[in-house]
Structure formats: structure tokens, C-alpha cells
Amino acid sequence: MITVEKLSTPSNFIKNVITDDLESGKVQKVITRFPPEPNGYLHIGHAKAIWINFALAQEFGGSTNLRFDDTNPMKEDVEFVNSIEEDVKWLGYEWAEKRFASDYFEEMYKRAEMLIQKGKAYVDDQSADQIRETRGTLTEPGQNSPYRDRSAEENLELFRKMRAGEFKDGEKVLRAKIDMSSPNINLRDPVIYRIAHVIHHNTGDKWCIYPMYAFAHPLEDAIEGITHSLCSLEFEDQRPFYDWVIAETGMESTPHQYEFGRLNVAQTLTSKRKLKLLVEENIVDGWDDPRMPTVSGLRRRGYTPEAIRSFVFETGISKSQGLIDLQMLEHFVREDLKLKAPRTMAVLKPLKVVITNYPEGQVEWLEAENNTENPEMGSRQIPFSREIYIEQDDFMENPPNKYFRLFPGNEVRLKNAYFIKCNDFVKDENGNVTEIHCTYDPETKSGSGFTGRKVKGTIHWVDATHAVPAEFRLYEPLIKPKEEEAAQAEEGTEETEKVEKSFLDEINPNSLELLHGFVELGMKEANPQDKFQFFRHGYFNVDTKYSKPGQPVFNLIVSMKSSFQLPKA
Predict the structure, then answer these.
(1) Residues 425-454: pLDDT tens digits?
(2) Is the CA virtual torsion 499, 505, 506, 510 positive or negative?
(3) Is residue 272 annotated as part of the catalytic site, yes or no?
(4) What DSSP state is assigned to residue 139?
């Protein structure tokens, strides 16, 4: 378990509420919960919700439950349960108790019967389409169901038959009886139970009726004694129904719901439905594809939990629904890795260089620092011989002005090695340069104190004799959604809204580029999740899926530099 820094959360309205509740004695101990539905993998937006719930409770000496809101077995699976647990732990948080909404199904059923007996719920025979059509609009009231005035006795009998499995899916539902003319559509007799003859991952075939999320969630909070039910802003309109359920079912504990602005990152898709479609259409190679904004995808790409925590900390807690620049997240990744990642050399698009005046068969071992900003990381020995690889982009036959790398007649420094001067080159039948011939100056060895002349360009290289073949996977944003799509409410709702496949047309065809080049000898046995800074290229992570012993595959985490700067306080 990673130790999470006990940082005080920035001043915010929820923190002020908690402070007042504790000082007034309204609350004795803060208890929060992180309640994901196990119908997909967690994404970067969830990282903020996790931080808010765990950090606030921790700051006030309270506790946080991990609760799976598993009320919709048609979409849920134990695979998602396991992945969520792994992600929360990896981010550095430890829950007080692990709970499932399905643990409370019997209690929820009893509370539903209580509503029926009070005349606050009824069984409706209308179809889902009919209920939707009679719900009304923001400006027009809804219409009462023709079954709304059934007696409590008849409703109770029908509801028990629903539980006994005597009706087909969709044949009947249980609705709360509130006000079909309410200006809040969520109070227009919402459905609170539906029939679903499916196997549940946790309860098996015990149940064939399942509570709707909006009904189940407040009951779960009350049963667990949650003091502050923290959720994203799209649930604000549902708060009156949340309070109605708590009051009408006679729960002893009375939690309160508080909403915060969700985390929306530019060029990042956080709709579970759309992410699932990307997986199902094989556009990505799974939920943990490094292009995915899932926590597991970010982990596989090489992001660190420390960077993600710093990022969400910086975004703070507010009611605003602003769009955060993706470069801000990348900034914190660089900040976290710059003192942790060893610095080494890799050639992604190799071009061979023959140093014609270097002795054939000779191998020289040069010293190189592992991280110039962190001397404690020590140094390493790298081989140097007559043949090396450089980047194709580091040579031009006819360079433009201010091109300071290698070209005929020009001299550059090889990082940690010598000056070399280009004298000749070889082309293939297509006119492509395949080999460069250079000479080196043995007096210019790095660290020798040579001051005879200066060169303007320094390039990296890998010794050809000892080079380790490697694959490099370079990433760009997978998809560029519209801002309103990025801000779309997704989590916790149970609408049957269809996923439009039109967004697939916006997928970036260049989101993944595969390159095959070489890394230093010492990288041959790099382990999955090992992270490095490749000189001039950026930060890379050893892939957990495709990398094999002696055959490393590296994922680009972030490029070397960015123009992004944090706003001044």
C-alpha cells in the first residue's frame, strides 16, 4: 500500500460544512464513501472523487468505505469489481470497509414495502416508453399513471409477485408516488424497482427485481451511517429525491448529499459507455490501453499515483465545471519523474554511423550520470565503439539555416562521448541515407576538460555492437470530444440512453505510432513499470503487456518539455 501524504485539502465549501458539523456536534465522526458502479474501469475523473472522499475524511480523523453500487446486474461484472479495488489501492488509498449495495437488497425491499403500505409507492403496468412519454417536460407537467390509485393491498400483492418472479422483464415496475406536476422531473413518480431475470455477480439468482440507483443510494448511505454523501454536480437535481427516500422510509441515520464539480480534462473522454464501445470495437486493446483515460490505462502508460494525486489536489474542490488543460496533468507527471527516472539514451529511428578512424574491434566504456538533477542516482558505464546509431532526424544532407546537428562537413558532440565530424554518407537505390561516415577527435572526450573549440549541437546515440532492439509506442490523444461531451454526466445514472457511434469518426488515426530502434545495453533486462527519461525524447515506461525479458517495449509517458505553467496563486 502506497502511503498517501497527509496534505490539508484546499479551503472549500465541503470542508467548511464538515468543520461546522463537527464543531456543532451534529456529527461525531466523519464517514464518507466512494461508491462506483462496477460496470467499467475507473477513469481520471474518478481519481478526483476518490481523493475528495478519502482526503477529507482522513483530514478530519474519519473513515471512508469502498462501496460497489451494484444495482444493475445487466452491466456489472466481478472483473470490474477487481479492477476498481486494484486502482483505489494503487492510487494510495485504503478503505475502512468494503461494502456492496447488493448486501442490502433485503433491507431495501422492506423499505419499499413500507412505502407501499404508506401509500407512497405503487406498481405500474405501463411500459418504459409510456412512462417516458407521460413524464412531461421542463415546462409541462407529467400525467398520472392510470395505475397510480391502486390500493396499498393490491400494490403489495403485485410487488410480492414481482419478487417471486411471476412477471416478465419490463412487465411491471414499482414507482414512488410523489408529484407528477413537480418542477423537478426527478420527483415525478420515479421508478424505484424494475424486473430483471439475470444473474447478479454477488447474489446469484436470488433476486429478479432490482432497486434503481436513485432509490438504493440514499438507503445505502443511511445504512452505513455516512455523514457526508459527496457526489458530482449532475446529482444536484436528484438531492430532493435523495432526501425524500431517507425521510419516507424512516431511516434512523440521515446523511446529507453535497455536490462538487466533476473533473473534465480537455481531449479526454470519460464516458463509460463510450470507453466500453472503444473496447468492444477493438479500437483499443483493452480497458488498460495506454491511450485510455482509465486509471489502469494511465498506470500501464507510466503515470504515477503521486502525479495523479498532485494533479487532482491542484484542481481543488468547487462547484465549477471547468475544463482542465491536459498539459496540467502531464506537468505533474514530469515533476514527479524528473528526480526519479534514470536518464539514458534511446534511438527510436536509427541511422548507422561508422567512425572510420576509431580502431576496429575496440570497445571503450564511458561514464554517464544516471540523473544530472539527482546525483544520488549515481552513474553507469556505457559502451562505445566504431559503429553507433543516431536518430535519422539528427542528419540532413542539405540542412536549413540554424540546423546544428550532423551534416556534411559539420561537427557535433556525442552525448557523454566525443566530437564527430561528418565526411561522407551512403544512399540506397531510393535515395535514402543508410549510413554516415565520420571521424572522431580523441582529444574531445567528455569529462576530459577539452576547451580547444566548441560545437553547437549535441546528439544522443547508442553503441551498435551492444545495442538492444526495442519497440517504442508513441501516443497522441485518442479522441478529441467536444467540450459538452467531455462535461457530460455519466456516472451513477441508470438511463437507457443509447451510445451514438458517430463519435468514433472523431478518433485520431495517429493516436498510436510504433517505432523500432535501440536502447543502451543496460536496458536489456528492464522490468515492466520501470521508468526512464530518454535523452531529448521524453519519459518512457516499460509496458506490462507486450514487453518480454530481453525484448523491451516502451510506452511514451510524456514528452520532455511543455510550455504549460501552473497559474500563480
Answers:
(1) 999 999 999 999 999 999 999 998 888 889
(2) positive
(3) yes
(4) S
The single residue of 15, 37, 259, 391 carrying the catalytic annotation is 37
Terminal-to-terminal C-alpha distance of the chain = 32
What single DSSP character describes residue 77? -
Residue of 497, 496, 494 whose CA lies nearest to 71: 494
153 in catalytic set: no
**For the residues 315-338, what does the mean pLDDT come to?**
91
Res. 483 pLDDT band, cuts 50 70 90:
very low
Q: Which residue among 272, 301, 309, 380 is the active-site one?
A: 272
Helix (H) or strand (E) holding 46: helix 44-59
- Pairwise CA distance, residues 466 & 451, whole Å: 30
Contact 350, 366 (CB under 8 A): no
Q: pLDDT per residue over 458-479, tens digit each?
A: 999 999 999 999 999 999 988 7
**Dist CA 47 CA 86 (whole Å):** 13
Amino acid 500: pLDDT: 53
- Degrees, nearest 5: CA angle 45-49-50: 110
Q: Is 37 noted as a catalytic residue in this protein?
A: yes
Beta strand 553-559 with 538-542 is: antiparallel
Residue pair 536/460 in contact by the 8 Å Cβ criterion: yes
Question: In b/e form, how buried is each residue of 19-50, taking b as 16+ CB within 10 angstroms?
Answer: eebbeeeebeebbbbbbbbbbbbbbbbbbbbb
Q: Which of 172, 262, 291, 473 is catalytic?
A: 262
Whole-angstrom Cα distance, residue 106 to residue 384?
72
| Assessment of whether the complete model's pTM goes beyond 0.85 | yes
